[in-house]
Amino acid sequence: MPVLAIVALAAGTYALRLAGPLFQGRLRLPERLRDLLTDAATVLLVTLAATAALTQGDGPAGWARPAGVLVAAVLVLRRAPFPVVVIAAAATCALLRLCGLS
Amino acid sequence: MDMRSLWRTLDRGTLRDIALVCLADALVGASFGAIAVAGGLPLWVPIVMSLLVFAGGSQFAAVGVVLAGGGALAAVAAGLILNARLLVFGFAVADVLDHGTPRRRRWARLLGAHLVTDESVAFTLRHRDPHRRRAAFWISAVGLFVVWNLAVLVGALAGRVIGDTDALGLDAAFPAVLLALVLPALTGPGRGRLRAAALTGALVAVAATPLLPAGLPVLLALAGLVFTLRRPAPGDGSATEPASESDIQSAPQEVR
């Protein structure tokens, strides 16, 4: 991975982050737009979780990883602490692979 | 900023939640470092990337594209598309960086902007009081920056020893922490439309993954937002939510 790619990603990301704090005073977002943007962020995060759980490259991720993430989802809904959720997901996934399920 | 008065502003429950999220992110950061180095990237790549980019999702996405044999341009595009949401988040927490003398405000903006993440925004939006918002932002943001980068360093060093990160299930850690962050915002009354939007978006993105270049399917998910655009039906609580903060504010709040 070239240095230039990392710098480009870093610079672009920083610009995205800085726009809000910089233009906030001059540019007032209407209430409905703010609601929409907040919803958009939630939808993007759920989608990122789904694609990270279910896909690998441009194909499916197999069974072990989705199973681990499913365990995580159940624990989240039962209000388990964050670290427990993450460890359980990785452990489930690793155990299934140990049993030969990929 | 005075760190000690910031510290006192927050209740113990919030501080504990921040510590738990830091710990969970440490596990994810370590898995990122290990996956990148075990996959064949030089040691410095995940470390420098984490310091400069500091956005887990895009780091995973970019490294994933590179490890899958994709080009640098595709990797940058995938990362930036994912980070488009930070534009939204920047506006959502801009008020906490808008405070003090002009000089201090400038520095708060320049430094604080780099620390805008899903987690620090979720903690900020939990509060309405300006002092608490500011305290929640800075404590969670600085804590996460330190913990994330240390964890990536440790993971990257370990990645030279661990040959197969999949055997440890490390690839499940990142989606798991994303769900932990966002699922609570989708549960409860009045969130039906948002649930429909998120579910539709996720399905569309997963279905489009084999067809489109890496990074694009996630953006396609925004089509799911049509569900939130319709006028609320009577009895749907989403219309009466007091402010735009309602949607992610409950995220870490529900964690016990």
Would you kindly provide a written description of the structure presented here, covering whatever features stand out?
The complex is a heterodimer of chains A (102) and B (256). By secondary structure, chain A is mostly helical. Chain A is 75% helix and 4% strand. Chain A starts with a helix and ends with a helix. Chain B is mainly alpha-helical and 256 residues long. Chain B has 2 domains: 3-188, no CATH class; 191-240, no CATH class. The radius of gyration of chain B is 19 Å and the shape is globular. Mean pLDDT of chain B is 84; it is low at 235-256. At the A-B interface, helix 1, helix 2, helix 3 and helix 4 of A face helix 2, helix 3, helix 4, helix 5 and helix 6 of B.
Question: In short, what is this structure?
Answer:
With 102 residues, chain A is mainly alpha-helical. Chain A is built from four helices and two strands.
* Largest interface (CB < 8 Å): A-B, 75 and 104 residues
Q: For this entry, what is the oligomeric state of its chains?
A: heterodimer
Find the count of extended strands of chain A (DSSP E, 2+ residues). 2
The proportion of residues forming helix of chain A, as a percent range, comes to over 70%
- Give start-end ranges of low-pLDDT stretches of chain B: 235-256
Could you say how many structural domains of chain B there are in total? 2
Tell me the major beta sheet of chain A: 2 strands, antiparallel
Mean pLDDT of chain B: 84
Tell the overall outline of chain A. extended
Can you tell me the overall shape of chain B? globular
Strand content of chain A: under 5%
Low-confidence stretches of chain A: none
Strand count, sense and closure of the main sheet of chain B? none
Describe the protein's topology:
The complex is a heterodimer of chains A (102) and B (256).
Chain A: H1 3-23, H2 31-54, E1 55-56, E2 59-60, H3 64-77, H4 82-98
Antiparallel strand pairs in A: 1-2
Chain B: H1 3-9, H2 12-38, H3 44-52, H4 56-67, H5 72-83, H6 85-92, H7 102-114, H8 118-125, H9 130-159, H10 173-182, H11 192-208, H12 216-220, H13 226-229, H14 246-249
Helix pairs in contact in B: 1-9, 2-4, 2-9, 3-9, 4-5, 8-9
